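Sequence only, no structure available. Ideas?
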Amino acid sequence: MKSFRKELWFETATRRELRNITATVAECVRQSAVQEGLCLVNAMHISASVFINDDEPGLHADFERWLEKLAPEHPHTQYAHNVGEDNADAHLKRTLMGREVVVAITSGQLDLGPWEQVFYGEFDGRRRKRVLVKIIGE
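Reply:
I predicted one. Tokens follow.
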């Protein structure tokens, strides 16, 4: 069995951003030379997320509104976590959007549905964070 590991690093210019990383993950699959297996993609920071969904701007705006209703950034004083910090909302948003995805690899390709794309979700940005890609298979 083959095993491949790569860290992807991201730094966003804004506090929150959704970034399509499908092509980058597909390149990792190509580099791994795995033809049949599994690809794990997970955020290594507790205020960032990896998830699968449609790459449609209206949906991304809906995510932003929905997440902000469920875990509003302001006022910072509403959160017990925010003692010397201001990112409790980011931790909650990450919990809602998920930590990782696992995608099947078939014939050397990510085996995604017709509209599925892999996203990095940043909820407390403006600093460097990493995502782990771990691929196993034959």
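The CA atoms of residues 15 and 125 lie 4 Å apart.
Hope that gets you unstuck.
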